[in-house]
């Protein structure tokens, strides 16, 4: 086992105790043993999202609307003429984003394809309905991995071969996980130093929470876990943060984090599993909109990060 993977697993042991109750851990183990996280062919698929070729959305920053795009991250890492970006797409569906980047000769030349992958739970049959990029008939077999993202840390040394990544992205996947905050912590651990994580997830309007602060799963002592608290804690520990949420429509939230040191993603000291029956009116802490105050838009945030 690689040194980096061993450290990630050690960190995960500590994180897991704070994000999962014993009952949830037992449930996840049963689902893992029975392979219940796998989607059977055609079962319950949201085709709009699993075949999405572009990860982008428009969010408010101050008084204006700005576009956030995964392609901006790739461009930022290669602005000085560099190549060999290692990209990991967690919850990649049928691999449409990666396939689009492979078809685009200019973008394809910027990535290290030996260390760029997607992770999916979609059945092989559904993926086989899509045509691979020209010249790469085994593209989906080579670039797509299949495992349960609620056990991401346990696959870091095997399926991911101990690799670290410059960009880790996900689109409408974390909202389906059983322990999204724990998985976020693991994903952050897979970043190389200076790497950027870019997630786009919907805000759950009835509960007013994001996947990372789902009040059915997490609390801070006897108070609800709030996104602003997480953001302040991360920024206070040196993590570069960009965060903003749409005011209407899909209520899509953007979270971008840059890893600036080898330490784990900081979590609140009082974090614990479960809502402990908090009243509904106490569970609306994520309806505020958040944005990095140091940047006018996402591209400027990337420039400030000096990717």
UniProtKB/TrEMBL annotation:
Superkingdom as given in the UniProt entry: Eukaryota
Pfam family, one: Methyltransf_23
Matching SUPFAM superfamilies: S-adenosyl-L-methionine-dependent methyltransferases
UniProt-listed InterPro entries: SAM-dependent_MTases_sf (IPR029063)
Protein name, UniProt field: Methyltransferase domain-containing protein
């Amino acid at each position: 086992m690689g040194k980096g993977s061993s450290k990630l697993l050690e960190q995960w042991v500590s994180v897991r105790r704070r994000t999962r109750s014993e009952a949830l851990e037992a449930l996840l183990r049963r689902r893992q043993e029975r392979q219940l996280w796998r989607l059977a062919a055609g079962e319950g698929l949201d085709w709009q999202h699993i075949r999405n070729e572009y990860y982008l959305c428009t969010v408010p920053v101050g008084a204006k609307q700005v576009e956030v795009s995964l392609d901006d991250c790739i461009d930022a890492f290669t602005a000085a003429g560099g190549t060999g970006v290692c990209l990991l797409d967690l919850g990649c569906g049928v691999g449409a984003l990666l396939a689009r980047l492979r078809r685009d000769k200019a973008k394809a030349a910027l990535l290290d394809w030996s260390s760029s992958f997607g992770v999916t739970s979609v059945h092989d049959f559904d993926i086989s309905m899509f045509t691979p990029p020209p010249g790469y008939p085994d593209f989906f077999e080579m670039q797509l991995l299949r495992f349960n993202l609620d056990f991401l840390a346990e696959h870091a040394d095997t399926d991911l071969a101990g690799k670290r990544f410059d960009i880790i992205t996900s689109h409408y996947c974390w909202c389906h996980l059983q322990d999204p905050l724990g998985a976020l912590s693991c994903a952050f651990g897979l970043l190389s130093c200076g790497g950027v994580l870019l997630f786009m997830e919907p805000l759950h309007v009835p509960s007013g929470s994001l996947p990372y602060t789902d009040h059915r799963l997490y609390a801070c002592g006897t108070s609800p876990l709030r996104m602003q608290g997480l953001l302040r804690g991360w920024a206070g520990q040196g993590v570069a943060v960009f965060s903003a949420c749409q005011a209407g429509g899909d209520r899509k939230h953007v979270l971008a984090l840059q890893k600036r040191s080898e330490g784990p993603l900081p979590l609140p000291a009082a974090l614990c599993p479960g809502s402990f029956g908090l009243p509904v009116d106490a569970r609306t802490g994520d309806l505020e909109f958040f944005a990095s105050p140091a940047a006018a838009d996402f591209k400027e945030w990337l420039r400030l990060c000096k990717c």
